[in-house]
Amino acid sequence: MMRILFSTLFALLICSNTSAEVNLKNLHSSRVYSKVLKEYRDVKVLLPNEYNDTYYKYPTIYLLDAETNFDMGIEVLSFLMDNHFIPPHIVVGLPNTDRFRDMTPVDSVMNKNIFRTRGGADNFIKTLELDVFPFIADNFRASTQRLVMGHSYSGLFVVYAFSKRPDLFDKYLAFSPILWWNNKAIVNDIDQFLSNNSSIRKQLFVSFAEEAAEMLKSCKSLILSLETKAPSDLKWNYAWMPDESHYTLYRKSLMQGMETIFAEYKYPDVQVLVEKGVEVAETYQRKVLLSYGRNEKLPYSLLENVCIQLKDAERYNDAMAFLKYSISNYPERAESFYYVGEIYEKVNQPKEAVKFYEIAHNKDKGRWDYENKFIAMQKLLVELENKTQNNIDL
């Protein structure tokens, strides 16, 4: 898949809302005992704002390196969930006890003096599977859909888990992963994994900054393997961020990665709806229901904008199709009935127009303009009937 470019508008939107509010009532801190590692592990959980008002089971986002990245991570994720860039998730933060032990795959002698406890990634995978996942399932309404994201050494773990246990997660986000580890063994592992699997129904996002020479070489090798060997059902993207360093790209990678992974969840653009019709809205609803199990409807303000543009352009049939869709989703909104009345008036069907003006007036009796329009249309009908009767008498 081709490299994607970050949306400038989205970047500006995020940067102008850096203080996204996190509802503290939705934060929970717990501890779980790992039978695999023989130690207690802290677990930080953020529930979506709608959690207590629904019966849904929610997908989970597993945020690694939570001792440093949880606060920033939930700030960004809260903004994305609240503004409908991504679906509501349960966010699970996992702080480290021994980062280099848990995040690095087994190697032979490399860095044995620096990282004496290295090489425990397989045990950490077992910890997730046998200890953490069951704990989350027992205490929260979590679905089986999972996303994992990590940076640097935890980014290495994400790539390793993707190649060794792709069944654990549905979506993998690795920010500036340490691909040079153990003489770039992970790059070879990915290449072999892609060669051996004709179908990988997963999503993978990888980002890179202005890296050191060996790291950059490893990054290019990974992308080459993905470009040449990835099966068609693996949805993968990468982002090259030359203006960021290895240590500064986290926030930008998180925003861009989520925007990419959940591209189909974002509302269709107004102009796309205007140009391509109500089928786009109906297709969006079906996709969201099938992919995320959520019966989403486009916001009324978006539909109203489309209807007004089509009505003003005198594309009345297209406008009527959207108004029918809008009324079926928002039957309580008086505006849609009023717009239907306007269209019937424009095409000289006053008897139909007055019916919808009356509905709009009854639904919102505080709108004097709706009342005036209804009364005026009634008078017009009386005048037309009198005129018709006079012509008959003559």
TrEMBL record:
Residues 1-20 form the signal peptide. Transmembrane segments: none annotated. Keywords: Hydrolase, Signal. The keyword Acyltransferase does not apply. GO terms for molecular function: hydrolase activity, acting on ester bonds. SUPFAM superfamilies: alpha/beta-Hydrolases, TPR-like. It comes from the Bacteria. InterPro entries: AB_hydrolase_fold, Esterase-like, Siderophore_Hydrolase_D, TPR-like_helical_dom_sf. The keyword Protein transport does not apply. PANTHER family: SIDEROPHORE TRIACETYLFUSARININE C ESTERASE, SIDEROPHORE-DEGRADING ESTERASE (EUROFUNG). Belongs to the esterase D family. This is Uncharacterized protein.
